[in-house]
Amino acid sequence: MEIAARMSSKGQVTVPKAVRDALGIAEGDEVVFRVEGNRAVLARTPDFLTLAGTVKVPAALRNVAWDDVIRKTRATRAAKHA
Questions:
Q1: Has residue 48 been placed in a domain?
Q2: Who has greater pLDDT, 49 or 13?
Q3: Which of 36, 46, 47, 42 is nearest to 1 (CA)?
Q4: How many of the other CB atoms lie within 10 Å of CB of 44?
Q5: For position 37, what pLDDT does the model report?
Q6: What distance in Å separates the CA atoms of residue 11 and residue 78, rounded to the nearest whole number?
Q7: How confident is the model at residue 65 (pLDDT cuts 50, 70, 90)?
Q8: Residue 51: its pLDDT value, please?
Q9: Do residues 23 and 32 touch, judged by C-beta distance below 8 A?
Q10: How many CA atoms does the CB half-sphere of 49 hold within 13 Å?
């Protein structure tokens, strides 16, 4: 699907209804713009609460402080690239 829209003097663009419908976005929903080279991609932001329970967490990482998880992940990545 390719639909054109015009930018206002304030830098605003109305997302065409066909695009809103295709993405399932409505008033108040958040979207993200991702710049890829010389174009931008508009995407609906995921609802993180709907993702709860969909990712399996290894037993060793359950009930571990988030800072510790990040620290261990960074250390592992650094060791792989050293």
A1: no
A2: 13
A3: 42
A4: 15
A5: 92
A6: 41
A7: confident
A8: 67
A9: no
A10: 0
- Whether residue 63 is contained in a domain is answered as yes
The structure tokens 């620290």 sit at 71
Partners of 48 in the beta sheet? none
**pLDDT (tens digit per residue) in 23-60:** 999 998 888 898 999 999 898 887 776 667 777 888 87
Domain tally, the chain:
1
Two tokens at 33?
């713009």
**65 found inside a domain:** yes
Query: Exposed, middle or buried by CB within 10 Å (0-12, 13-18, 19+), for 74?
Result: exposed
The whole domain housing 70 covers 55-80
The mean of the pLDDT values for the chain is 87
Q: Is residue 38 part of a domain?
A: no
